[in-house]
Known about the structure:
This protein is an alpha+beta fold. The chain has a single domain (3-83), classed as RNA-binding S4 domain (Structural Genomics Hypothetical 15.5 Kd Protein In mrcA-pckA Intergenic Region, Chain A), CATH 3.10.290.10. 22% of the residues lie in helices and 29% in strands. It has helices at 3-9, 16-24, 69-72; strands spanning 28-30, 33-34, 46-51, 54-60, 76-83. The chain has a 5-stranded antiparallel sheet with strand order 2-1-3-4-5. A hairpin with a 2-residue loop joins strand 3 and strand 4 (54-60). Helix 1 (3-9) packs across helix 2 (16-24). The chain is globular, with a radius of gyration of 12 Å. The chain starts with a helix and ends in a 7-residue tail after the last strand. The relative contact order is 0.21. GO terms for molecular function: ribosomal large subunit binding; rRNA binding; tRNA binding. Pfam families: S4.
Amino acid sequence: MRLDKFLKVSRIIKRRSVAKEIADQGRILINGQPSKSSSRVAVGDTLTIKFGNKTETVKINRIVETTKKSEAEDMYEIVDETYAESFDQL
């Protein structure tokens, strides 16, 4: 599945267009490698996503084409979540 679609379906990012923009800015790493919105993700991959002063690392547990909101959190698990004290530390 494409990275931008996974982020939308799993509800990590609410809109696919926003997921595409963030990925194409280089703010998402797949297994430590820079990625684009069209990059493919698979079960077991680790995503590192930079949101402003928050950096979140998630591991993909399962991939489905569509999901209900209550089941979306089963698609991934949060491995790490850190916050920068200020934007200067980014």
